[in-house]
Structure formats: C-alpha cells, structure tokens
C-alpha cells in the first residue's frame, strides 16, 4: 500500500521516515519531491577498453560542482551520477520508490536506470543515475526538483535491514554521488571460497 500525504506526515512526525532537509511544500499527494545536490560524478576518458566490474571504478569518474546560477550541462546521450540534497532514512516496515518528475521526463531527463528501489533500513543520500535521452543539452541546477520518493508498507517488518552486516550493504550512509561498488561483491565472494 502506497502512503498518502497524511500517512507520510504521520511517519515524519514519528521520525520513522527521515527526510532532511524537508520543505513542507515538497509533500505531494502520495510522494515527496527531492532536490539535486551540489556534485555530479562524470565519467572521464580512459585508456581502458572496457569497464571491469571486478575492479574499483573510482578512477573512471571525477566530481564536478553544480551551481545554483551556473548549471551543469548534461549532453545528449551522456550519463552522470548525481545525488539528492536530502538524507533519507527508512524504518523496518517501509520501502521507497524513487521516480523522476514528469516535467523533466518530458524533456528527456531520466534520473535512474535501475536503482529506483530503496530498502527498509536505508540511511543516506540517494545516488541518481542521470541520463539525457533528448537531442539537446539539458541544464541541471543545484537545488532544483529532480525527482520524487513514494513509500510502501511491507506486509511485515523486514528481518534483515539494509545495512545489516550479513547483507554486506555497499552504500549505507552515502552522502554524495557514489560510484558503483560492484567489485566488493567479487572480493566478498572470493574471501569466502575455501
């Protein structure tokens, strides 16, 4: 069941959902608007002929500041990582869905490729997977409304929350755009082999 604005306000008041900072005006009928933070991670030119998912990908990106007055220009076909201004925290019985704003979707801006699901127990800023599907560059400004988050109640509280040691959660507590850490799955698997 998707939470209504009334239920979202109740969960916020009880501090079961945390959205910080939060402007009351951002609460919509069944979601909360989220804003673009100051940095994006752009992929740099590399001599590597491919991306090896077993290797750390930090060296393939660089951080670029997004201004409130001077925008970051997202070119057609370009893919960058961004982040929400807001820190989000979820209790054990709620999940969340991150979605784009329809006004931005109508100009070709996609805010996530696959990572739109937020697990119970999540704490941190959400990384955005920003793509420009249009034929023209799109401006991105610090603080602009970039997406929306809705909340769904689970049938029962989750037994293992995101961030639990047994899950080897890779992104708990992130505070800005975070490059893929898929290489950690291979390191964890390799360390458990006999």
Q: Could you give a short description of this structure?
A:
The protein is mainly beta and 194 residues long. It is built from three helices and twelve strands, in the order H-E-E-E-E-E-E-E-H-E-E-E-E-E-H.
Layout: helices, strands, pairs:
Blueprint: H1 5-13, E1 18-20, E2 32-35, E3 39-43, E4 61-65, E5 72-74, E6 79-89, E7 94-100, H2 102-105, E8 109-110, E9 117-118, E10 123-132, E11 138-140, E12 145-153, H3 183-192
Antiparallel strand pairs: 1-6, 2-12, 3-4, 3-6, 5-11, 6-10, 7-9, 7-12, 8-10
What does this structure look like?
The termini are far apart. The radius of gyration is 18 Å and the shape is flat. The model has no long low-confidence stretch (mean pLDDT 93). Strands 1, 3, 4, 6, 8 and 10 form a six-stranded antiparallel sheet that branches. With 194 residues, the protein is mainly beta. It is built from three helices and twelve strands, in the order H-E-E-E-E-E-E-E-H-E-E-E-E-E-H.
List its traits.
mainly beta, 3 helices, 4-stranded antiparallel sheet, single chain
Helix fraction bin: 10-25%
Question: How many individual β-strands?
Answer: 12
- The radius of gyration over CA amounts to 18 Å
Given as residue ranges, the uncertain stretches (5+ residues, pLDDT < 50) are none
| Distance between the first and last residues' Cα | 44 Å
Compute the average pLDDT.
93
The backbone outline, from C-alpha atoms, is flat
